[in-house]
Specification:
This protein is mostly beta strands. It contains no helices and six strands. The protein has a six-stranded antiparallel beta sheet with strand order 1-6-2-3-4-5, with no helix packed on it. A hairpin with a 2-residue loop joins β3 and β4.
Length: about 80
Protein backbone atom coordinates (compact mmCIF):
# COMPACT_ATOMS: atom_id res chain seq x y z
CA UNK A 1 0.00 0.00 0.00
CA UNK A 2 2.97 2.30 -0.63
CA UNK A 3 0.83 4.36 -2.98
CA UNK A 4 -1.27 5.21 0.07
CA UNK A 5 1.78 6.10 2.18
CA UNK A 6 1.85 2.77 4.05
CA UNK A 7 5.27 1.03 4.13
CA UNK A 8 6.66 -2.18 5.63
CA UNK A 9 7.17 -1.73 9.37
CA UNK A 10 4.72 1.17 9.74
CA UNK A 11 2.27 1.22 12.61
CA UNK A 12 -1.37 1.59 11.65
CA UNK A 13 -3.99 3.19 13.87
CA UNK A 14 -7.26 1.37 13.31
CA UNK A 15 -10.69 2.55 14.44
CA UNK A 16 -13.02 -0.41 14.89
CA UNK A 17 -16.00 1.85 15.60
CA UNK A 18 -16.04 3.33 12.07
CA UNK A 19 -18.21 1.79 9.38
CA UNK A 20 -16.37 0.56 6.28
CA UNK A 21 -17.12 2.82 3.32
CA UNK A 22 -16.02 3.12 -0.28
CA UNK A 23 -12.54 4.55 -0.67
CA UNK A 24 -11.42 3.89 2.90
CA UNK A 25 -8.38 1.77 3.78
CA UNK A 26 -9.42 -1.26 5.82
CA UNK A 27 -7.90 -4.10 7.77
CA UNK A 28 -9.73 -7.20 6.54
CA UNK A 29 -9.46 -10.85 7.50
CA UNK A 30 -9.85 -12.44 4.07
CA UNK A 31 -10.23 -16.22 4.17
CA UNK A 32 -8.46 -16.18 7.55
CA UNK A 33 -5.50 -13.95 6.54
CA UNK A 34 -5.14 -10.27 7.39
CA UNK A 35 -4.72 -7.77 4.57
CA UNK A 36 -4.70 -3.98 4.20
CA UNK A 37 -6.74 -2.86 1.20
CA UNK A 38 -9.06 -0.11 0.00
CA UNK A 39 -12.78 -0.82 -0.44
CA UNK A 40 -14.01 -0.01 -3.96
CA UNK A 41 -16.95 -0.73 -6.27
CA UNK A 42 -16.28 -1.88 -9.80
CA UNK A 43 -19.54 -2.12 -11.69
CA UNK A 44 -22.07 -3.35 -9.15
CA UNK A 45 -19.63 -5.45 -7.10
CA UNK A 46 -17.46 -4.71 -4.08
CA UNK A 47 -13.72 -5.31 -4.30
CA UNK A 48 -10.65 -4.90 -2.14
CA UNK A 49 -7.96 -3.03 -4.05
CA UNK A 50 -4.27 -2.38 -3.50
CA UNK A 51 -2.60 0.91 -4.39
CA UNK A 52 -0.10 -1.07 -6.48
CA UNK A 53 -1.62 -1.63 -9.94
CA UNK A 54 0.32 -4.91 -10.26
CA UNK A 55 -2.16 -6.49 -7.84
CA UNK A 56 -5.60 -7.33 -9.19
CA UNK A 57 -8.72 -6.26 -7.30
CA UNK A 58 -10.08 -9.00 -5.03
CA UNK A 59 -13.82 -9.57 -5.44
CA UNK A 60 -15.65 -9.94 -2.13
CA UNK A 61 -18.30 -12.19 -3.64
CA UNK A 62 -17.62 -15.78 -2.60
CA UNK A 63 -14.93 -14.78 -0.08
CA UNK A 64 -15.00 -15.09 3.67
CA UNK A 65 -14.24 -11.51 4.70
CA UNK A 66 -14.44 -9.84 8.11
CA UNK A 67 -13.59 -6.16 8.45
CA UNK A 68 -11.43 -5.57 11.52
CA UNK A 69 -11.44 -1.80 11.25
CA UNK A 70 -10.74 1.37 9.29
CA UNK A 71 -7.17 2.67 9.09
CA UNK A 72 -7.17 6.29 10.29
CA UNK A 73 -3.45 7.06 10.74
CA UNK A 74 -0.03 5.72 9.72
CA UNK A 75 3.07 6.08 11.92
CA UNK A 76 6.51 5.90 10.25
CA UNK A 77 9.76 5.13 12.09
CA UNK A 78 12.49 7.74 11.59
CA UNK A 79 15.45 5.37 11.50
CA UNK A 80 18.58 5.84 13.58
CA UNK A 81 16.52 5.67 16.74
CA UNK A 82 15.20 2.83 18.78
CA UNK A 83 12.64 0.70 17.02
Amino acid sequence: MRGDGIHDGDLLVVDRSLEPALGLVLIVALNGELTVKRLEHIGHRSYLTASNPRYRPIPLTGQEAQVWGVVTHVVHALGGGLA
